[in-house]
Amino acid sequence: VASQEESSNNTTGESSPSALFTKFGGSLFGAASGSPQKVVTNIRGFLSNRLPGTISIPSVPDTGKNFLSLLRWKDQILSLPKKWLSQASDTDEFGFPENLPKVPVPPLEQTMMDYLRAIKPIVTPHQYERTDKIVKQFMAHPGPKLHQFLVDKKETEDNWAYNYWLNDMYMDITIPLPINSNPGMVLPPRRFTTVHDVARFSARIIDGILEHKEMLDSGNLPPERAASREKNQPLCMAQYYRLLGSCRRAGIDRDSQYLPDLRNLPTSQHIVVCCRNQMYCVVVKADQIGRLSEDEIFSQLLYILSDAPCLPKTPPMIGLLTAEPRRVWAKDREMLLTDEQNCRNIELIEQSLILLCLDETLPPSFNARGFVGATPSYHTTNDRDETNMAHEMIHGGGSDCNTANRWFDKTMQIIVCNDGTWGLCYEHSSSEGIAVVQLLEKILKKIDEIPSPEESGVTQHHLAPPERIEWIVKPEIQKRLLEAKRDVNRRIEDLDFYVYRYQSYGKIFIKSCKVSPDVYIQLALQLAYYKLYGFLVSTYESASTRRFLLGRVDCIRSASSEALEWAKVMCQGEGANVALESDKEEEEDARKVTFSIYGKDHLQELFRIAAARQTDIMVQNILGNGIDIPLLGLREASREVEGDYHELFTDESYKIAQCFLLSTSQVACSTNSFMGYGPVTPRGYGCSYNPHPDEIIFCVSSFFSADNTSASRYAKSLQDSLDMMRDLLKN
Hints:
This protein has 731 residues and is an alpha+beta fold. It contains 24 helices and 17 strands. Mean pLDDT is 87; it is low at 1-64, 77-89 and 581-591. GO terms for molecular function: choline O-acetyltransferase activity.
């Protein structure tokens, strides 16, 4: 998530590692003026010799805060000033090592202390007490041995955590990709009046993707650098090279990925175009013809838009099978692969640069079920609102609409609808949202800067028409298509999704409060949940770890004890409001608290404490000292070294901590766009957000089958919480 790299506000009250050199001063350690290398060497020696490497973990985490700060302070001093110690020939223009550092293995004591602190606000006292005892046992044995296993693994691998994380996060997950895993992104709608407009706009997108692919193949992709927290530190760009030509593959035991070999790039390239559930292979680059021009791509797409509606037979809805649970789809995929023609079809799809899905309009039944007083949809197309558009990108609208017009395993599916709605559905395992967003917004900017050519109506007849992909459908596959149709429609009907724009203020006001927008919004999400339910739950927010080689994300756990104490006081003793409410304004007004039992100064102080804690968690994550990746490593090491999972990883508290009833992420866009996804658990919420200067766009999701969740109701609670925070912090 880009936001975690951009925030430069330090609200923790602790000195950053880069500031410690100034704080200590050269004379303290006997260094000559202007010799930071000598100072750092002496500091490192002092810390290594004077501070113990292993300290017994305190029994109560709250009393161990100084201990934890000491560990972190030591660790940061020992690791981060490495750029000062590097030789000039080993560093880049900003003084950082040319080679990215490896993901660290934090001290075992630090991970255990952070884990206990993270679960305290979301488990019962009895559960916490039991887990505290288990942690002590783990620290004695086998924790140190497992920790050393990870340290040794770090020395021999580029990224010791990557495969653990990839399998746990994606490859071992068995639930269907649409709604549960693949995000959908809506970009600003276009104005189409003819089928030529659809073909021209789509051709320009494909042309932009081909241009981007050439840049990747030539190695000219500009490297990115951190905007804060060790500013200008280089970021890993590996995931940018996995966007095009990649695909997830369903497996009987575990999924896998098809990734193109960057050392042996093919001389020809193709895309697959889906239109009215029919698939076409369009060669966009070949030895004989080179790369197709925009006009040539336009001609190929126009042929498809004319051909697909006129086919005498309805094509089989093979794309529906990719929307099934992963192990079910894996068996169906194996059945398809028994036929040589189907085998080639799947190979064409998996090795294509992207899928282009030319869609039909969704009915207004997918429009938002909002609340009284909510702001109206900003983007509209005919009778469709933004929530409707998001449904199209996430799942396609069902078997009667566009869900079969997909291949949900494909990393990038560009979706263009005949009414001007457009966006993307992307499979998440290959990259994070930032890579996808930046690519599409770069292409869109170029399209908007250069006007479309005048259409002559003459197509490029020198090109052979695109190859239509034909499937061999045996009776067992036909039966599975009927079952898949029923299952996917049921899951789509269960999705409660709402695009909500909060327009009272945005980043400008939040920054005036001397707080990071991401920290502020995360606290608003916690307050909104507490207002509804009277407690906090395990919360996931993705944090970029791209400062490290092959780094992806770790988890910012926003449900802190500090956030809980602040939320309690903000709600001033209100009871939980779990029962679903009426939208009547008078009932809303009757429930509002009109008195204050706490002073504003006290509320502000609790907010600052909660914000400082949230900032500290965020910084620790982006610097490689989160808890979820190390815990995952210890869990897998337990299985590999000890033969089974330690009790720490079968404990009830661990299960509660891993069940994210609130799954969140910031998806920052430079355009008026947004990205959303479904909850990751049946009783949970999904909530992405995109802060703009004067508004915040939320995509809130839940399931209708959960009797105590509601997307519109949570959005209303968010509105109330953000209003309360404005009143607390203004002036």
